[in-house]
């Protein structure tokens, strides 16, 4: 008999893009309706590179939060080649910044200030290791000669393995993993390593970039994100990983809003907006993997355990119910198209 309701500890989102200003005001209520906490990515137009900036950004998030919602933003710093070890001290003391994000320069949205030569960050990594401050990695190389679909695999060999050899006690989260290679690496690696997995990488393979739900050909900009969707064998490896119950894997939506016109363009932005139905999307994937009983640990336990934070105590209920996800949501003075816009979802968060 299939389960019709699922009551679990309230989940957190360990990888979220909230933007700023009017865009922040548009997307924040969606995440706060689903999650108790979220790790907020620092890749604003002017990146959040200092603790002082992170504290200011956190205050803007909290000031924007509608009064009836509870939500704790967990802040991150954007690593640059000029980040100083004393900035890590300040971050650690703040009690507000809990991780540092590595964007290889040029890898994704607003990554221009990211890192080209990791050697320049050695003193920062030593300090992070000492203070047990996790490094969140966007795990893709950006060399023009590497095929876009191979960027994650090459990153493991060329960047991640040497980095972890040099800093074996550095806590690392391999963000939004997309390949069997990443799953295998995370499962076998020694030391403190975790990985976030998005709903879209669990639900879709790269065919969905070029074929619609009915099998008709066409470019689908709302399925374009970074790291880009991979082939079906990789999607199956991700599903198997989360269904295995391995505590190294946890929920991170990578919900990344861009206005409709910026996606439906000659050179469209990367990012899937999933915040409005994140838990419902994940449940479809876990149901496909026959692993609904593994969802609570993935969504609500493994993340806080990795970060050394308390688990949430509030409980939420998801119910099996068909409903149609709106075609668009307001986004500042524009609109945003969510992933699965206008389609029927099979689960609904109650309350
Ligand atoms: C993210 C964004 O738009 O900020 N885009 C994406 O496709 N995931 C950046 C990122 O996390 O790579
Ligand atoms: Zn992201």
Tally of discrete structural domains: 1
CATH superfamily: Metal-dependent hydrolases
Uncertain spans: none
Total beta-strand segments: 13
Element-by-element helix/strand order: EEHEHEHEHEHEHEHHEHHHEEEE
CATH class: Alpha Beta
Helical content band: 25-40%
Shape: globular
What do we call the CATH topology?
TIM Barrel
Give the strand content: 15-25%
Provide the spatial order of strands within the biggest beta sheet.
2-3-4-5-6-7-8-9
Small molecules held by this entry: N-carbamoyl-L-aspartate, zinc ion
CATH architecture: Alpha-Beta Barrel
Instruction: Label the structural class.
Output: alpha/beta
Please give the radius of gyration in angstroms.
19 Å
For the terminal residues, how far apart are their CA atoms? 25 Å
Reported for the largest beta sheet, the result is: 8 strands, parallel
Helical run tally:
11
Mean pLDDT: 97
Molecular structure report:
With 351 residues, this protein is an alpha/beta fold. The protein has one domain: Alpha-Beta Barrel (TIM Barrel). It is 34% helix and 18% strand. The protein contains 11 helices and 13 strands. The protein has an 8-stranded parallel beta sheet. A 3-stranded antiparallel beta sheet has the order 1-10-13. Strand 7, helix 6 and strand 8 form a beta-alpha-beta unit. The radius of gyration is 19 Å and the shape is globular. The mean pLDDT is 97. Zinc ion (ZN) binds next to loops. The site of N-carbamoyl-L-aspartate has 11 residues, from loops.
């Amino acid at each position: 008999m299939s389960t019709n309701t699922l009551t679990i500890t309230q989940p957190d989102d360990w990888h979220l893009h909230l933007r700023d200003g009017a865009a922040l005001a548009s997307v924040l209520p969606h995440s706060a309706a689903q999650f108790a906490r979220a790790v907020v990515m620092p890749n604003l137009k002017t990146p959040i590179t200092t603790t002082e900036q992170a504290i200011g950004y956190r205050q803007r998030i909290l000031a924007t939060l509608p009064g009836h919602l509870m939500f704790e933003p967990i802040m991150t710093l954007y690593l640059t080649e000029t980040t100083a070890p004393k900035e890590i001290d300040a971050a650690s003391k703040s009690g507000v910044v809990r991780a540092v994000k590595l964007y290889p320069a040029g890898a994704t949205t607003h990554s221009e200030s990211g890192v080209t030569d990791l050697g320049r960050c050695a003193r920062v990594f030593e300090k992070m290791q000492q203070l047990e401050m996790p490094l969140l990695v966007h795990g893709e190389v950006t060399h023009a000669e590497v095929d876009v679909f191979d960027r994650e695999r090459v990153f493991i060999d060329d960047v991640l393995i040497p980095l972890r050899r040099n800093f074996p006690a550095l806590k690392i989260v391999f963000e939004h993993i997309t390949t069997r290679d990443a799953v295998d690496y995370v499962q076998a690696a020694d030391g403190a390593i975790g990985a976030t997995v998005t709903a879209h990488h669990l639900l879709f393979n790269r065919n969905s970039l070029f074929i619609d739900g009915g099998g008709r050909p066409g470019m689908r900009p709302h399925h374009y994100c970074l790291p880009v969707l991979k082939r079906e064998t990789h999607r199956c490896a991700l599903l198997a990983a989360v269904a295995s119950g391995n505590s190294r894997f946890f929920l991170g939506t990578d919900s990344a809003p861009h206005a409709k016109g910026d996606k439906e363009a000659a050179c469209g932005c990367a990012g899937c907006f999933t915040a409005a139905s994140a838990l419902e999307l994940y449940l479809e994937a876990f149901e496909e993997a026959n692993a609904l009983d593994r969802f609570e640990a993935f969504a609500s336990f493994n993340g806080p355990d990795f970060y050394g934070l308390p688990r949430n105590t509030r409980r939420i209920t998801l119910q099996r119910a068909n409903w149609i996800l709106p075609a668009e949501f307001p986004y500042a003075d524009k609109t945003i198209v969510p992933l699965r816009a206008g389609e029927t979802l099979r689960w609904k968060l109650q309350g």
